[in-house]
Amino acid sequence: MLEAGIHPNDILIVDRSLEPVPGKIVICALNGALTVKRLLRRNGCWVLVAENSAYADIDLHEDLELVIWGVVTFILFEDIMKAPLIALVDCNSFYLNAP
Fold it and tell me: b or e along 45-65 (b: 16 or more beta carbons within 10 Å of the residue's beta carbon)?
């Protein structure tokens, strides 16, 4: 999820009461394995987008077992230099305002 501003060791704040609608980043269990992806709708089909060119998007179909645990609302991360600064970033605004 690097292209969405989510890096290894970041802490994700999740709201389980929000509806997982297209465009939102979700935490889900896909065939029993936890993953973080952006939920999209393409040509009438649901897709989990990796937001990292090293990983393929996942087209959802009825043969897959999918449980969406919640919608990511904020990201907590440390500065790259490991300074004690922590930033709180609204991941949905980051997506909408990205060039």
Answer: ebbbbbbeeeeeebeeeeeee
Element (H, E) at 94: helix 91-97
For residue 67, what are the contacts with CB-CB under 8 A and spacing of at least 6? 28, 29
Q: Over 60: is that where the pLDDT of 97 sits? A: no
Residue 77 has pLDDT above 90, yes or no: no
Q: What's the CA gap between 44 and 41, in Å, rounded?
A: 6
SS3 call for 46: strand
Q: Report the CATH superfamily, name and number, of domain 2-97.
A: Umud Fragment, subunit A (2.10.109.10)
Domain ranges for the chain: 2-97
4 against 91, higher pLDDT: 4
| Overall pTM surpassing 0.90 (yes/no) | no
d(CA 24, CA 63): 23
The first and second tokens of residue 32, run together, are 């029993």
